[in-house]
Amino acid sequence: MQISKRAKDTQESPIRKLAGVAGAAKARGIHIYHLNIGQPDIDTPDVFYKEINDFSGNVLCYGPSDGMPELKEAMIQYFSNYNIGLKKEDIVITTGGSEAISFAFSVIADPGDEIIIPEPFYTNYNGYASVANLKIVPVETLPENGFHLPDLTEIEKKITPRTKGILINSPNNPTGTVFTEEEIKGLGELAKKHDLFLLADEVYKEFTYDGGKHFSILELEGLEDRVIVMDSISKRYSACGARIGAVISKNKDVVAAILKFAQARLCPPTLEQIGATAAYKLPLDYFEPILAEYQERRDLLHKILTSNKDIVLQKPKGAFYIMAKLPVDNSDKFAKWMLGEFDVGGETVMVAPGAGFYSSPGKGKQEVRIAYVLETVKLEKAARILLQAIEKYNPTRVGGQ
Ligand SMILES: Cc1ncc(COP(=O)(O)O)c(C=O)c1O
Known about the structure:
The structure is a single chain. The protein has helices at 5-9, 19-27, 46-53, 69-80, 96-108, 124-131, 152-156, 181-193, 252-264, 270-280, 287-305, 331-340, 376-397; strands at 31-34, 91-94, 114-119, 135-140, 163-169, 197-201, 227-232, 245-249, 321-325, 347-350, 352-353, 367-371. By secondary structure, the protein is α/β, with parallel strands linked by helices. It has a 7-stranded mixed β-sheet, sandwiched between helices. Helix 6 (124-131) links the parallel strand 3 (114-119) and strand 4. The two termini are 39 Å apart. The chain binds pyridoxal-5'-phosphate. Pyridoxal-5'-phosphate is lined by residues 38, 96-98, 122, 169, 173, 201, 203, 232, 234, 240, 245.
């Protein structure tokens, strides 16, 4: 018996694939600083738990497939703070942003169709694309250019009769880049010209630094029918385990089709929607200390890493990741080596190897994604251990060994 080609072709997550080696290191008593996963360490808001604790039903029932109306109302209010006007019928609550991506991929394209995505990109797009039999057509972005978009003509060259959409993720995982309003408007024009969907993964919407602002594709005028946003509370409210996300679109056919997918999986988690509703009612100043904390971490990490002149990186403007090119031959091997053969006083660091954030073969081999999701004292220790690891690794490995 054979499993499907789709199953064989689906990539392992580079973020999680080193879990076995990490487990073995922990079993040897090594302490690992996890810079590999975008799991914020900021406390989930108290109101989230309080509302769940106050739940008084005798039965934990299924809810509506498109999500609880109270949550949608709280989201509508929240988005109005950003001058984005939504209606309940524009929103389908999903089981995490992950399900939102998967639904969006399935709704825009048939097997073999294409979606254009600036590369490097959130690694799990590869997995969702495999499951939907959708071909990712990457557009190169470069560290030297802050991973901003190339000229629109470069993107236009990638459009074929099979292209169904363009997907951006801003603020970006893994690069931390925040695309400008002009960049996003340019993509909107391209989508209009070639009759494409414009999709945006906006799960890091609030996480912008240095006074910068995120521009949502929901703010684009005259493109309402083409725009699909994938959203989540995982990062917004430090609630990754809640598994609450949303697809947002003003295109009625898109929403109706997504609702059919949603009905097939019955409903998103009920208690967590109750918690999320309370979180969405928090005032916007809830984010202020959190953003200040992340900005401090970013500055610290950037400062430490730039002390090694052979590391190539830009100071990112958003999210909580730095994509850095290291002076190592292969970041996959290097990440494994740090877990399996290296430690400083019983401590080591786990990072996500870069290749999995690309769909172009051979790219990202020297890059790693570093998530600054540790408080500054731990982050500083972790970053210094990483620098020592680079020093120790290099004499033995660089030069093709
Ligand atoms: C860009 C991006 N989109 C989506 C997700 C998945 O979000 P969720 O936890 O809501 O499934 C992540 C998680 O790291 C992400 O970084």
